[in-house]
Amino acid sequence: MSSDPGSLAPAGRDASVRDRGDACPGSLRLHSADDGALARIRVPGGILTVRQARTLADLARRLGDGELHLTSRGNVQVRGLAEGCGAELADRLSTSDLLPSPQHDRARNIVASPLSGLDGRGRGDVRAWVRELDRLVCASAPATRLSGRFLFAVDDGRGDVAALDPDVTLVATDAGAALLRLGSSPAAIAVPPDAAPLAALLAAEVFLAAASASATRVWRWHEVPDPAPLAAEVRRRLLARGVDAHVATAVAADLPEVPEPAGSTGSNGSTGPAPGIVPAPDGTATLSVLAPLGRLSASRWLRLASLAADDGAGEVRLTPWRGVLVPGLSTATARERMAELSGPSGRLDDALVTTPESPWTGVGACIGRPGCARSLADVRSDVAATLGAGGSSGASDSSGADGTRVIGGGLPVYWSGCERRCGHPRGEWVDVVATGAGYDVTVHGERLGTALVGPADLAATVAAARTAVRPDVSTRTPR
After folding, report:
1. Phi, psi of 271 (to 5 degrees)
2. Does this model's pTM top 0.85?
């Protein structure tokens, strides 16, 4: 087993026939789009210092389109970059510790429970694990070969980021140990907490060794049909390092249950932090806001950075649900600042989402035209027009088809400019897709609208879809 950690043959598709390598963009490998080049800057755990946040705003203003685009992995994209700016971009990121290892630029995909250590929930503060895992990844030669799609998750036990389909997950437990989960396997390896980051790295290295031995282009753990041999190899390598690693036999009580990704699991159609003020056990508070469609102007972004510097703990946290947290404010100051942030903006889609009642809550979209040549519509403008039409497509307090009150607006909504559906959420969502003749709206596999054009019609159809009752699959006759 030590010489061959297993062979990989992807389940569901044959990765050996992929006709190209991983094209995920990074800080150094820019993606060419119709609105200019795009850089994706990895932010492990979503944690930024004020200096780093201000650097990103300056880069967006000076080199890009003046906006910061948040991703579903808590990273930041800068769009509209001019040709030839790559060297300056890399230099600024390096001097701000946003690019600690150029060789590992795209490998630093680490999401973490955003409210860890802030709200008294969870089973511990996992930020130290995030920092150490990032350090280990950047020191690993094999890790340079990780796909930009490979994802580490560091969950404090509440189950939020464990639900994001990670490849390698660390979970804090009540017993003080850490559980290592590989892909979606219900089994886990228990390790001492100080060995948790090492366990996660070794799991990624075992995956890479198996992929190399099989000569296939596998990028994600779910492409492994039989992960058992790889799990055994991870445990063997941990034991060889003197780490007390054993298969957890009672994982049900320790591993968080991955929730159904429906609106009822969270106020923004997910398990992410709701917009508003989050109290902490020590009497401080955290400001939680969402960015409409994941987009923030540099001025809005800098306002949040200034709050972190002047009133908070000097830290900004990005969430995988395209939100921003500013921790460490006094409760009174948090109320004042949230009222200020809730004020009107010059642009409908530049106003921060500060309450679950915002029509933007739970609404996402791809970049659409003019940024993407494949898109069949200016998706983001159409979203704004639909929400501005007075429909309840994003309302967070409505009635379902059976008259029951729906909290969180029901299912999340995702608007796509083409059939590729880039950036769509995990699980079920209201699928709004541009066809060239309008938009098709689908939920639970049922088409509710075809070639819809008018904002009022779209708003009404999407609102009905968000609160549609999910069919009871248990009563269906098997085909």
Report:
1. -105, 20
2. yes
